[in-house]
Structures are given as C-alpha cells and as structure tokens.
Amino acid sequence: MQATAVAQPNIALIKYWGKRDLPRNLPAVGSISITLSDLYTEVAVDLMPELPADTLLVNGTEAPSMLARISACLDRVLGAQRPRAAVSSTSNFPIAAGLASSASAFAATTVAAAAAAKLPLTTAELSRLAGAASGSAARSLFGGFAELSNAGDTIEVRPLRDIESWPLEVVVAITETGSKSTSSTKAMEISRLTSPFYDSWLQQQEHDLDIARAAIEQCDFAGLANIAEHNCLKMHSVMWASRPPMVYWNTTTMRCLQTVRRLQGEGCNVFFTIDAGPQVKAVCLPGEVERVRRALADTAGVQAIMTSSLGQAARVVARRDD
Ligand code: DP6
Q1: Closest among 189, 212, 193 to 276, alpha carbons compared
Q2: For a disulfide at 107, which of 7, 73, 200, 210, Cβ 3.0-4.6 Å?
Q3: Per-domain residue ranges of the chain
Q4: Domain at 2-161: CATH code
Q5: In this structure, which residue's CA is closest to atom 14 in ligand 1?
C-alpha cells in the first residue's frame, strides 16, 4: 500500500519558540502562520511488511540521520506494530536551512502514511499527529492563515483566514544553503533553560497574538507588519541571549533587513520575518512582489530568490493498493 502527499511549508508571523511539554511536543506559546504555495515537499510512503527496517530517501539520497524522526512519526500515525515503510521525500527548496522544511516534511509524511493505511483521520487528528513530530508541521495541515494554540492538552490549530480573501505574497531571500548548526528543537530547550528573556517572551505572546489576529481579521497590512517584525526580533533576542548564544543570521541576512527597511521608507508594503536560519522572508501585498524580488535579488550576498503566494493545506496526491 502506497500513498503520496504534498505539503507546503508555512511561515510563522507570530512565532512558536519554546515547549511546555517536551514528550508531547506541546508549544509554550501560541503562533500564527501563513502556508505557502510555491515551495513544497512531496512524500511517498510505501508500506512493505517484508522490509526489515524503514528506509528514507531525501531528494534521492539516503538520509540515515533523519530516519529516526520519520520512523517515530510513522509509529504515531500507524501504531508501533505497523509494517516497515520505504519513505521518499522531495523538496524544491533547501532543507534544514530555516525554511520550515520540517513543517512540510512531517505534514506530508503524516498525511501520506494515514492514506497508505487507509486511516480515516480528520484534519484535526492529522494536525495533532504532525505537530507531535514537529510543532510547526501542525500548521501545514491548514491553508492560508492558521493559529496553533498553546492551551489544553493537545495540539490544536484553527484556520483564521483563507487564501482568496487576503492574497499576500512572500519573497524568500536565500542567503546560505547549508544546514543550520542547531536544530529548532534543541535551540528552543537551550532558550528555555538559559535565556534571561525567555519568561518575558512567554508573557508577551498573548498580546502579540491578539494584535496579529485583529490585523488579519481587518486585512490591516501595516498593523500585521509592525507586530510580525517585532515578534520576530523578540524571538531572535531570546536566541541571542541564550547560552550558548544562537545567532542564525549572517551578514547577508542583515543586509536583507536593510533592503526591506529601505523599501518601507519608499512606501512599499512589505515586512520581514526570519526563522531559525539565515534566510529572510519578505511578506508583501501582491502589487509589490516584483519590486521586492528585484530589491532582494540586488542585495549583496543573496544566493537565490523564491517567490510564493499563499497555499493550500497538505493533501494526498496519489494512492495505490498493491
Ligand atoms: C522558528 O516546528 O521546527 O520556525 O517542534 O521542535 O520540530 P519542533 O520545532 P519547529 O520550530 C519552528 C520554529 C520557528 C518558528 C515557527 O515556525 O513558529
């Protein structure tokens, strides 16, 4: 039995950083994201009882270092007595480089595994299972704007707004293609245990979420820009003040921020956000995308540019019974 699913990464505008319950992967703060359309991960899960162990290909190459996390994800979806699986994942963007590849990879793996085993799971159930593998993956089970809650005993995501009603665009400036030095999972724990700013980060998050939710509700771009940049810089301040410090930025990251500031000074509707990596995501109104793309492409050190509209939820694209 085999199924293939596609999921798009999502970019948090109000960030998830910190865990309240490590074993269950419950987030310490709520977060709000937008799911993208043009970046994707496609995952095929082939359930093969005769296989002695799971196998994993990432972009055509064996990836033993990522296998344990994928196997654990399959155990959660299918149960520990499940057949072994051959998993193959392909992404059209650099992975493990702060572009939310774990979100799209675990969302697609969860959806493909459930489809391969013909499990009739709801979106909420799939989202919980994906979120147990990687918190941000829970959000990729939804299209458009979504909010991951930090309340209750389970991972809960709710859609805030669909993609047609407020069609934002995202320009991603790739400043470095290598893998990041510290995984988000590990870095979040270091922040929780050592950052002097961690407690204020937790305390202020509800306020940031309220402002962002209202801005999204009213299609208030300036309001969303303001709170998203503030929340992003606050998360990075928590990281920078951790011990050891986690500084994911490089010189080009900073130059891209300056480019965005210059564009804003010229009246362009754009704002930046940065995750646990050196890439800069510039969110803008549809009419500005070409201008933003050109300005970031002309920024010294930028290696590549990807542009994307807002996208749909993770979904099954093929299924086969052997
Ligand atoms: C900075 O979802 O990768 O991108 O649950 O440990 O897998 P785990 O973390 P992950 O963290 C994402 C962190 C972030 C912010 C965000 O996406 O909200």
Answers
A1: 189
A2: 7
A3: 2-161, 169-309
A4: 3.30.230.10
A5: 275
**Residue 266 CA, ligand 1 centroid: distance in Å:** 33
Alpha-carbon distances of 199 from 16, 152, 192, 234, 281, rounded to whole Å: 14, 20, 8, 12, 26
Ligand 1 centroid–CA 198 distance in Å is 16
> What's this model's pTM, rounded to 2 decimal places?
0.96
Greatest distance between any 2 Cα atoms in the chain: 62
pLDDT in tens, 214-269: 999 999 999 999 999 999 999 999 999 999 999 999 999 999 999 999 999 999 99
Taking a C-beta distance cutoff of 8 angstroms, is the pair 49, 78 a contact?
no
- Ligand 1 center to residue 221 CA distance, Å? 24
Peptide bond before 244: cis, by omega within 30 degrees of 0?
Answer: yes
Specify the pLDDT at position 178.
76
Q: Whose CA is nearest to atom 8 of ligand 1?
A: 134
- Residue 270 is predicted with a pLDDT of 98
Please state the rounded mean pLDDT for residues 61-76.
Answer: 95
Q: What is the mean pLDDT of residues 15-44?
A: 96
Superfamily of domain 169-309: GHMP kinase, C-terminal domain (3.30.70.890)
Contact (CB, 8 A) for 22 and 193:
no
Decide if pLDDT at 96 tops 70. no
User: What Cα–Cα distance (Å) separates residue 311 from each residue in 23, 125, 161?
Assistant: 30, 20, 12
pLDDT in tens, 274-295: 999 999 999 999 999 999 999 9
